[in-house]
Specification:
two-stranded antiparallel sheet; 32% helix; globular; 387 residues; 8 strands; 6-stranded antiparallel beta sheet; alpha+beta; single chain
Amino acid sequence: MFARAGSLVAVSALFGVIVGTAGCAGESEVVLEVTSIGAGAASNPASTAASAPPSSTLAPPALAPAPSPIIEAAAPEPTIEPTPTPDRSAQEFLNSLAEEFHFVLAEEFEHLAEVSATWNPDGQISMAVVLPDETLHGYQATESRISASAVKPLWAAAALDAVGVEAARPSAYPALILSDNLAGGRLIDLAGGVDAVNTWTRNTARLSDTRLEAWRFQDPNRVAGNFQPDNPLGNRTTMADLALFFVRLYKGELLEPDETAALQQWLLDTSHSLASPRDLDGVLLDRLPPRVAALSLHKAGWLRPNCCPAEYRQMTDAGVVVLADGSWFALAIMSARGEFYDLTNQWVALAACRIYAFVAGDRDLVCEREGDGAHDPEVWPEAATSP
């Protein structure tokens, strides 16, 4: 399945805010990263060591409840219980990883980069895997990217922290389940505004490379205090930041228990598969085993054809992948600027599946699908047009 001889065989709207409009960055050197993001930890390039991920004494994380079988715009019941403790501790999961984990995962990243370059030669990609001890494994994971709606869970968390579950629920549910941009703006308002969201992101979530510049849906004045109108791509994040946010959320470090449980449930109620090639909100989990997808939580963000020019198009999806035994890891994947948008989404789904199979040691999972890599002009007929 994984083409690496001698290796372990398991490896919505233009959110960048173009001023006054609703919406549908330079090239960088390829970098493979393996770093520890814990407090006071130093970066360690993947090529310098072949050791297992560092140990930690983390308390067992909370496993989110199973998703609702039917996704509806209506809010769930107001009483949400804390999620149960998983069967397997984070430490046991970390101890189970083979010593060659760093290097073989880096090889898988390289393979996926080659696939992307073949399918969409002009595409840009980023991938981040963050383990429960906050060890980051990445491919261009710290490159700044347009954030799109993938950061709406951060706004929901900031709103929950500010006003609590019941006040946040009416806006959080449609913002996360339906990716409603007007509801997303209300979450920002509940959190105290754009500057308050940025303060929460920096100080509470401890994310250094994620920033909200403006979200002007229904309110042209919803902008940062130092808003620069000539900077249309000011809403930024990295795949490392997205994955770290999900790790800290899943461990219950960011919010009170009832707020954590509510946000996890909303993220579980997102789409976990793709009903058609034009679907956009279930890409990350679409090719994972059904039980794994059902346990996992995520939020996608996209800038699609006929929303914006080719240089802004992207699919970003991030979340927590929960294995059947209760162990878990955070995953964030982005593909942008590719000529063929159907292949952009195919690649994100393929990458998520192959990374899951490697981390979980699922050697029997077949991630490839018939038609992969072949552009179908009927899926996104406007995708290959000039900007």
